[in-house]
User: Fold this.
Amino acid sequence: ETAKYSTIKIVNGQEFRCFKFPDDICLGFIQGLGIEESDRATGMLQYPKDLKLAICPSQIVADYPQYMTRFQPGDLVEVDMDFTLANDKLLDAMSNIPGIKRLNIAHCKKLTPDCYSILDKFKDLRTLQATSSSLSGATLARANCWGSLSQLLWNDAIEPTPLLRKIQSSPKLLELWLNNSRLKPIDYQLIAQFPNLKYLQVNKNTITADDIKELSKLENLVSISLQECSLDERANAALAKMKSKRAMKSSGQPLTVWLTP
Assistant:
């Protein structure tokens, strides 16, 4: 069967997105962004049309990827992979959903380097959450789906340098998390090239005065978190100079710095 799952209906003057899923299997769980409860993706479900929805797929979807082709653009914006289930085959099935803007593969340890070609199928990505995943910077750099990325949330990253180099100077990247990622001087140099970066977290990394001088080139930065970075005297002086320079600017937001209490 190829019929699409969703239709838009008006109930008491309000538009709803109404899904008709198969009754005999559960495709996973559907959840509104910012809403704690989730619903089993089976049978009839309806949501306000403007509510952004995510899906966490069940394992059976890996064997029936054609079920994912029955979603329409606008039905779902996010795929959340269950780290206990996620593998290349299941991720490939989810790449059949059109218009996915957010992908969460946090803690997914079963994904292999070969999945870079699967990531390429997510053409509209704005957010990647890859904290503690098995994928290295070299693997992610082989994919070509980063042109619209605005959030890269990647704590405990494995050798992030190749991906940072791949997306360097991207004007669309606004938020970057690389906590506890063994960052090197070259990583800070690459981070400093994101012209519109606003929010940066590099907690639990080694960072020197020279690294902070590089980051001071981020003129649109409004928040930087440096907790548990063991800043030495020179690094603290460089940070104070960075803050002072920002405070002297006649326009724009002041720089907020988060340090270990």
